[in-house]
């Protein structure tokens, strides 16, 4: 995975993790969502939509393995209009986002040049796809 996509996924993942953890708080999260007329759910849909767009734009990375995470986030956000159900779904999504961040950090870094040539000697060609 290229470092630009890794940074993008880490930033979006950490933002989504903090949001899900806050919305999963029993009284505070529910009151915040109710007083803002469910607007945070719409912004969660935007964040997960950005994650899907970035994953589809990453042509050579392995980020498509985690495409299910923002899809589950969108489904959970659409279901989370019921306050008690929403709290449980936000807890589940918090743990899914922790898994997402750990997986993104564990992907190998992709280097631009995949072959290194030493003085034109083809016997010493080293494959350096990942560091």
Our estimate of the beta-strand percent is 5-15%
Structural class: mainly alpha
Considering DSSP H and I runs of 4 or more, what fraction of the residues is helical?
Answer: 55-70%
- Helices and strands, in order, run as HHHHHEE
Overall mean pLDDT stands at 85
Please report the number of helical segments. Answer: 5
Q: What are the segments in which pLDDT stays under 50 over at least 5 consecutive residues?
A: none
Give the overall shape. elongated
Question: Span between N and C termini?
Answer: 11 Å
Please summarize the sheet with the most strands. Answer: 2 strands, antiparallel
Question: How many β-strand stretches?
Answer: 2
What is the strand arrangement across the widest sheet?
1-2
């Amino acid at each position: 995975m290229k470092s630009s996509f890794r940074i993008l996924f880490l930033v979006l993942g950490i933002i989504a993790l903090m949001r899900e953890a806050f919305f999963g708080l029993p009284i505070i999260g529910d009151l915040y969502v109710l007083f803002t007329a469910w607007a945070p759910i719409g912004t969660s849909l935007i964040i997960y939509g950005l994650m899907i767009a970035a994953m589809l734009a990453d042509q050579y990375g392995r980020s498509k393995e985690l495409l299910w995470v923002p899809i589950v986030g969108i489904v959970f956000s659409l279901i989370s209009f019921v306050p008690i159900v929403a709290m449980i779904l936000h807890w589940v999504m918090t743990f899914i986002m922790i898994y997402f961040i750990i997986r993104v950090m564990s992907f190998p870094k992709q280097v631009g040049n995949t072959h290194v040539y030493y003085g034109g000697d083809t016997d010493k060609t080293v494959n350096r796809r990942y560091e």
